[in-house]
Amino acid sequence: ALDRDSFNQLSKLDHFDGQHWTQINGPGVKTEALRATAQELHVFGDGVFHLSGTTWVAETVPGPATWLEYSDVGNDIFLVGNDYTTTPSTPRLAKRQAGTWSAIPAPATQTVCGIAALSANDIWVTGQDRDPNTFVYQATISHWDGATWTITKPANVTSACAIIANAGEIWVAGTGNGSILRRATNGTWTTLNGAALGDIRALVVDATGAVWASGDNGVIMHR
Which residues contact 190 (CB under 8 A, 6 or more apart)? Predict the structure, then answer.
């Protein structure tokens, strides 16, 4: 569990061992995501940190960037974020393999915010562009095949961040009209109506392979 202050800094973490809760200090930086396994604990945001005993250790990651989300492939970690020190911001991707971080080419979109990696040569990234003339926002879904990025812009979806891979399909939650877009195995996008949720913020796959979506107003949808 995360305990953030008003500046989105991770001040405390709460851990439950099945019987008791214990609390430790956070790294004290803006934090966007937490990754916990049986072997290690990472936080991502303005930097990447792992917990060594009770001490947070900064890892060297190509950047600069505010890291927003991650995806695991075996023992490798894939990260997505943006460098907000530039105008406009610059998308960043990174990969950790055997304990070392390296940069990955980013798609030619204005921002990125979600990632689902199936392998080093099969990566899906969500993001957003804004038209400089109309100021209208447009969601982007980008696919990396190991050599090039292919960018899709789904109609009537202003932003898409939540993304998961499930049984050979890619699911993306879009905001603006509450739609969910599903990529079938033949590459065709099918739009599913999720308007009852308002803006959809998160997707998860359970142990049975079912997809759950959560949105505004505390609503949860199951498929």
Answer: 181, 182, 184
